[in-house]
Amino acid sequence: MPAHTSATTPGYRRLFDLPGTRAFTAGNLLARLPMGMFSVSAVVMIAGSRGSYALAGAVTATGLAATALAGPWVARLVDRHGQARIAVPATLASVLGSLALLLCVRYGAPDWTLFAAYALTATTPNIGGLSRARWAHLLREDPAALHTANSFEQAADELCFMLGPVLASFLTGAFFPEAGTLVGAVLLLAGMLLFAGQRSTEPPVQRRARGKGPLRAAGFPALLAGFVATGAVFGSMEVVTIAYADAHGHRSAAGVVLALQAAGSCAAGLLYGTLRPAGSPERRHPWCLAAMTALMTLPLLAARGTGSLIAPAAALLVAGMATAPTMVTAMTLVQRRTPEGCLNEGMSLAVTGLLTGIACGSAIGGWAAEHTSPGSGFAVPVAAAGTALAIGTAAVLRPSGQRGS
Q1: Which of 62, 66, 220, 377 is deepest in the core (most CB within 10 A)?
Q2: Which residues contact 188 (CB under 8 A, 6 or more apart)?
Q3: Which SUPFAM superfamilies match (predicted)?
């Protein structure tokens, strides 16, 4: 979908001129950075102590599953009682889980305690969702400014998930295996306290209509299915990229290659926020999905056409540029379709859909990498993106039965 700049398009400076936005954004970013640290830190810490990557992977997978279950429940409590009253104690419980995991690993506790401790970290609030909810409240009368804010939040997601693993790897390697988990827990708690302390920008609690949850809202289930398919793109791309790099003797470079995809998405997200896209989000969403599907074919073509890692790396940088606009538009639709009084729950369900898709995509991508040629595994993200496109297009066509513009 084409987009054009406008003299009336609000910029990032205008967002942060609003009272309190700089402070809550600083706290949000500080608390969000550990989200890219904990998984890597846990794997390094557990595998180094117990000598088993299988155990480390099983523990982190348990945490992912627990997060998918607990996330919407925590978000519903936030909607009912307010961000500060729920997010702070939920974060404290998560931090205690991280510290318990650290101590269990450090002092050789039985394996089952690792699963229990890491599952406790699932109470971590959806920090990006809390921030988006604040922007939605502050900019409820200014859709163009909200588009810019959502673009910033998506770029922040990409930046934190790009820098988090790098910081975790540095800490665990330069100091001691538990350093990544320890620093991540401190950053999470400090950031959440700073964020929650900004009460002037906290959305007021709104009464929730009886029986009007997000899953019963028109169009929300299809949107959630699209998030699952989009998550499968991310999960499969990570696994097949690592497998491709390993097959060509460059496994250590896989992290850098994946960081390029995140960097492309981050840059595109910031640029997208300076534009004023034409048309409604409902009409733009399939166009964004179509662009993502088309660009995801580039790594496949590069991997099949060359035997090096350079071409797929460059292709991933370009392919990542479709991710942020797609996610920004999808999150805007979540905000529009979620009934009043349950916005945090709606965004948490979207994240749960992404996590579910990432898990499924990782499994399918791993199977493809093992049973097909190294380059052919890149067909899985293309298929997942195509599935998301089909779901998004069907959702647009269903109300009127006619193709939208």
Answers
A1: 377
A2: 31, 34, 91, 94, 95, 98, 124
A3: MFS general substrate transporter
Angle separating helix axes 323-337 and 127-138, nearest 10 degrees: 60
Nearest 10 degrees: CA dihedral of 111, 113, 119, 123?
A: -150
> Average of pLDDT values for 250-269?
77
Contacts of 377 (CB under 8 A, 6+ apart): 236, 239, 240, 243, 244, 365, 368, 369
pLDDT, position 294: 94
Task: Note whether 153 and 135 are within 8 A (CB).
Answer: yes
Q: How far apart are CA 100 and CA 118, in angstroms?
A: 8
Confidence of residue 241 (pLDDT cuts 50, 70, 90): confident
Query: Cα angle vertex 342, ends 38, 399, to 5°?
Result: 110
CA 178 to each of CA 40, 53, 173, 220: distance values in angstroms, whole numbers, following the listed order: 11, 16, 10, 41
Residue (of 175, 194, 142) closest to 32 by Cα position: 194
Find residue 276's DSSP bridge partners: 4
Instruction: Note the pLDDT of residue 6.
Output: 39
Contact status, residue 22 vs residue 16, Cβ threshold 8 Å: yes
- Chain centroid offset of residue 209 CA: 29
DSSP 262: H
Where do we find the tokens 């580039």? 298
**Rounded Cα gap, residues 179 and 372, in angstroms:** 38
Domains of the chain, earliest start first: 19-205 (1.20.1250.20), 209-405 (1.20.1250.20)
Could you tell me the two tokens for 82? Answer: 């307010």
Contact 402, 393 (CB under 8 A): no
- Asked if residues 350 and 334 have their Cβ atoms less than 8 Å apart, the reply is yes
Which residue's entry shows tokens 């992404």?
Answer: 354
Q: Roughly what angle, to the nearest 10 degrees, separates helices 53-81 and 83-106? A: 160
**In sequence order, what are the residues at sequence separation of 6 or more whose Cβ sits closer than 8 angstroms to the Cβ of residue 259?**
162, 166
For 245-253, the CB contacts below 8 A with 24+ separation are 245/309, 247/374, 248/307, 248/308, 248/309, 248/374, 250/309, 253/309
